[in-house]
Amino acid sequence: MTETAERPAPTRRPPRSEVRADVLAAATRSFLTRGYRRTSLNELAAEAGYSKGAVYSNFGGKPELFAAVVAARASDFADRALAQFDAVLTEGEPSGSTDVVAARLAGSLTTDDQWPVLLEEFRALAAEDPQLRAVYTQWRTAQRDQLAAQIAARRAALGRPDAVDTQAAATLLMLLVNTLALERRAAPDALPASLVSSTLELALRSIVR
């Protein structure tokens, strides 16, 4: 009777979504601690537990991966901001007054100071690197268009007259939030949370009135 050699168990191949999530998490840690220029894709891939090829096949390259990291951080804040913006446009909601919403936005903005730093580095690098500039332009344009469309849809659903340039409104909110976040991080004593809230309230009122 011959012994049958045991076959090794097949290696589980993780789904693409899992690979992307792992690489994105490792990239976020790396970009935050090392910055864009000093981040190595080889080291990043090893930290995520995959080959460098997994980074390229899922994100295309270092510029696209950096954009994905910044977009994920910014989108998380944007989702919270949009939820608060919805409250402003919801009639009959006491919690939807612009001062309450602005205070909530200010709270989110002043407690998460990491993504504005990433965004600022991305912007500075995009000014020098044509490849990064193309990625940055595509991402920011899409973000502005999405926010503008959502503002228009919510105003239309509530029967508000379409007297607001939604592209300009979206641009105003994006730039204001980014600038306030960076200023707050650099000099919190010069820009207290109450002033951040008042500034955001002024912008919101100009959009929803």
Structure description:
The protein has 209 residues and is mostly helical. It is built from nine helices and no strands. Helix 4 (62-89) packs parallel to helix 7 (130-157). The longest helix has 28 residues, at 62-89.
| CA-based shape | globular
The biggest beta sheet reads:
none
Structural class: mainly alpha
Number of domains: 2
Keywords: DNA-binding
Domain HTH tetR-type: 17-77
DNA-binding region: 40-59
InterPro entries: Homeodomain-like_sf, HTH-type_TetR-like_transc_reg, HTH_TetR, Tet_transcr_reg_TetR-rel_C_sf
Helices and strands in order, then pairings?
Layout: H1 16-34, H2 41-48, H3 52-59, H4 62-89, H5 98-111, H6 115-126, H7 130-157, H8 166-186, H9 193-208
Brief digest:
GO terms for molecular function: DNA-binding transcription factor activity; transcription cis-regulatory region binding. This protein has 209 residues and is mainly alpha-helical.
